[in-house]
Automatic annotation (TrEMBL):
PANTHER family: PROTEASE M1 ZINC METALLOPROTEASE, PUROMYCIN-SENSITIVE AMINOPEPTIDASE-RELATED. Belongs to the peptidase M1 family. Residues 309-517 form the Peptidase M1 membrane alanine aminopeptidase domain. Keywords: Aminopeptidase, Hydrolase, Metal-binding, Metalloprotease, Protease, Signal, Zinc. The keyword Membrane does not apply. GO terms for cellular component: cytoplasm; extracellular space; membrane. The keyword Cell division does not apply. Residues 81-271 form the Aminopeptidase N-like N-terminal domain. It is an enzyme of class 3 (hydrolase). One of its GO terms (molecular function) is metalloaminopeptidase activity. Residues 1-19 form the signal peptide. This is Aminopeptidase N.
Amino acid sequence: MKYPVLGALSLILTCYVMAPAQTVKPSGAATAKPAARKKTVAPAQAAPSSIPAQLPVPNWLPPTNPVQPAAAIVHDLLDTKLDVRFDWAKQWLLGTATLTVRPHFYPQSQLTLDAKGFDIKSVELVNGPSKKGKDLKFSYDKKRLNIALDRSYTRTELYQVRIQYIAKPNELPSTGGSEAITGDKGLYFINPLGTDKTKPRQVWTQGESEASSCWFPTIDKPNQRMTQEISITVESGLKTLSNGLLTSSQRNPDGTRTDVWKQILPAAPYLTMLAAGDFAVVADTWRNKTVNYYVDPSYQHTAKQIFGNTPAMMDFFSKKLGVDFPWEKYSQVAVHDFVSGAMENTSATTIQEQLVQFTNRELPDVTYETEAVIAHELFHQWFGDYVTSESWSNLPLNESFADYSELLWAEQKYGADAAGLVQQTKLRNYLQEAQTKREPLIRYRYANREDMFDRHSYDKGGRVLHMLRNQVGDEAFFAALNRYLTQNKFSASEIAKLRLAFEEVTGEDLMWFFDQWFMQRGHPELRVTHSYDNGQVALRVQQVQDTLFQPVFRLPVTVTTWANNQPTDHRIVVTKADQTFRLPAMQRPSLVKFDSDGILLAQIDEERTQEELVYQYYHARNYLQKYEAIDGLRSKTADLGVSALFRNALTDNFWAIRQAALEGLRRYKGSEGNAIRKEIQRVALNEKKGVVRATAIGTLASFPNEDFNEVYSAALRDSSYLVVGAAVDALAKAPTVATREYINALQDTKNAALLTALSNYYALNGTADQYQWFLNKSKDAPSEVLYTLLENFGTLMQRMPPIEREKGIQRLETLARTHPMYYVRLGAYKGLNELVGSMPVLKTTLQDIRAKEKDERLTSIYSLIQ
């Protein structure tokens, strides 16, 4: 994986640190239900151009951490058989594990297993076909189980050990996980006693990075591979899922049922999973293989509309890679309170339910983000599961490819513009992180393996693969991927093997590419200028990045010149910090465009006049060129030619261009004000795509002291929750008596986008009548809503007498101390902080919360807002 938790929510810390004066919200908050991602589809906010002085020194220096090698392979873990059942009241797993192992090379008389927080009942050597056990001596420190074997075994001898144990995940100390995976206890019980009526009873696992050993004893390293069989005993009304195929299902005399799942193909232990709950199973197929979607029963009728492209993706990826989907079946299960966005367990992906469970009304608002999650985890079945990185240092061999699959599927299904939007969003995600952190993709000196799950491994890695594809060409790119997969199937890999596969296919030495992009830190920061004289364009390219700890990059790139409305492509290679290229041109070009295909992973400051940007828009060959022109002209909309361009863009075929034009027209002050406003109102009322209608409403709301209540009132009745939410946000700044009743009628909604908008509205305009609403929603709102809602709750309480705030303050304090999601704790903390001005006694409470918080992400933020 892991698909980062709610995608953009993993950037809360970065966003808050980069702009501490702003009220930072999870980027998925306003559209959290319809578009919650690992990754957003709308153009992301540009990375800040400079780092505020109060920030810590950026982490651009070489690390002083020790080298993190791949784990030594002492034993080969060949097979794992588990027999598990659950104590729901205690939230324990009662298990028996039978492991088949053999020494890797040297003779061994001791076996060491990872086993975190267990009660070990017995350890036996299993003898022969009778499966009788022989007790073995062992020592155990709650982390590792050291077993003394009955004798020394050689590498040609298999042996089996059987371990009876109890896993107690809730008693494990938490290390906080990572930005992509917020929990590390391996096994999670959801609503185990059924007391919470807002969610079902479920149990599920999450193994990456090394948390499988929190629920079964294993050698919990990515360079191990095992086959497996898991017997799961549950109440008869629950459905189960695990890796491989369901080989038997037997009812037991006590009313329970035992399902046996078996996977005969070997995979790393962290990819082992189970899930049990009251699921509806929606059936599909691909080439006679079972494809199932496990969802809450209330969402079974929309599941096919969400997951239905899965077989087409399996077909596309299989053909593109020349390797058929390798596993016995493919299932996807939506679970509650998942600690990541999604996880690519072999043949059984687990997904955060809010990413894939939607009502019929919500379906039109579902963005590509949801499909991107599905594509990402599916592509992992090849990159990460079929071939696995041998160490966490090599994690981009898993994550970069999964990230890049999102672009590949967008390109295949929706065309070049959609792929360009993915490319743009991912590049911005990485550049935002790069403001405070620059690391090599392949990192042998990380401080903690969880540090690898960042925007480098995902977004930067995917962009590097895009450059590699452009460098070698499509045919060679996919031929090399086929070679890499077939040569390394069912094994662990490292970056050198990928390079060799490309070199063997192309016949070229690609060390330069792999060294500068995978092994070096940073990215090029380019200043590009041009002039024309005597039949030549002089193109000057300066690499202005700090080259003390970053390289001067070698950059093959396409430059396009336009003359007489005809483009001419020039292929150049930048190799110096300051380099001038002379390009033939019979006349002064109307436009010179550096990196015209939008391939480079770089920050580019390219000098162009207003006339050149206008020309670029009307002659753009792709989405990125058109968007870049609009973005460059935002400050020039008062010019008649530029405003005409923006009006033209409002009718563009691609929705993201229409949206970008609306954003550029915010607070428009030109002479065409009335015409522009009428155009924006037309879009708000008649645009087909909900997210664009919502953006149009937001643009109308940017004009101060103007009355668009007729549009807002119509929007409150819109079929799209995004549009209704945008209208509520607009009315929050200019409330009217006529719309108040309509807004109050929305209070029972469960839609995340609308809940967020309502909390914003009531923060500014609410009265004591909404106090109970905030109390109720603080109990049952989705986590991605709570971040904003809780701060807004504090704002509302400012307008209430202190004596009436007690329940609200208690709720905020409890959530700030105990909620499992760190960003919810942050929202609750900020809600309390809103009240400090009128209740100074809360300073002591906030100090205590800060002192007891163990998550470093939060302690860093708290230091900025106290």
